[in-house]
Amino acid sequence: MTVTRSVVLGCGAYLPERALGNAELARTVDSSDEWIVQRTGIRQRHIAASGEMTSHLAINAARAALADAGVDAQSIDLIVLATSTPDQTFPASAVSVQAALGINHGAAFDLQAVCSGFVYALATVDGLLRAGNAKRALVIGAETFSRILDWTDRGTCVLFGDGAGALVVEAQQQPGAREDRGLLTTHLRSDGRHKAKLYVDGGPSSTGTVGHLRMEGRAVFKHAVAMITDVIEDAFKATGYTADDIDWFVPHQANKRIIDDSAHKLGIAPEKVVVTVDRHGNTSAASIPLALDVAIRDGRIKPGDLVLLEAMGGGFTWGSALVRW
Ligand code: UT7
Question: Best mutation site among 37, 153, 221, 261 for ligand 1, i.e. most ligand atoms within 8 A of its Cβ?
């Protein structure tokens, strides 16, 4: 008996042209390249140009993913865009992507789970594909966090950056074995008791303004590793795979120390860990597809590889996904 799996056909990414290095940033905020590198691993982040919006980044990433997959935009019948920095309160930025790609069938919507957005979007798309609601989807993570940062708050403004990444995912029949291609398991979690540790101090229904990102960095850090490892253990339990079986670990890119500690606790060898936080900073929902794109372009991730994804962020939300490429 065969089962329906969501198989990855292609990946694409887009970064705004302007790269902002630590030294340049430290000229306007009380920080230093040394502090930022030592505490976070970040060396630079990209910043969207004036007038360049989340949907623009998403459209570029989506086009690159379609080209990589070698499929026509008209074959897409579902677009899910993970973002916490949409162009407007509504409509969803996903419909701007849909219109720019010339698609007027199927469905397009945004999904908001902050830094866990891409894993949440993948799980959502997987459910819709396996239920037969769609056949071929674009799963996008795109953010312009530079627009919601308080550039005078050194505890947050040095951490985040802008960018977008996308996957083309298709429903395919697979044998129903551990060796299948596609998404093998996804695990989503949240705990709203922690909502005040990482939030934006504005919104349409509260202040009527967009607001700025606020974070108790140390408190988030304290929970991150335990939550990440917990939800990855769930993925191992569900599939029978172990850390040794993983070819590539592509975590959300928030802080090099969180990534290293999580990999160490799980027993994943450092050479299997894809790290891009040095170049991209924390791009929230875009960080995983951006990192996937880097590791595909440089030849690390190849068809057949077992790839482990995880993310943790505001809410708190967290999640994992295990994919055979
Ligand atoms: O993606 C969503 C999830 N978000 C995260 O995963 C972020 C999690 N948190 C972190 O990555 C870390 O907590 C930070 C990078 C935000 C901070 O690192 P830390 O090692 O936890 O530092 P801290 O907040 O405990 O601050 C240590 C010191 C403080 O000074 P005092 O009180 O010891 O004198 C801060 O004021 O470092 C100071 N500090 C800075 N110094 C220079 C905080 N930010 C900066 C800065 N430059 N940018």
Answer: 221
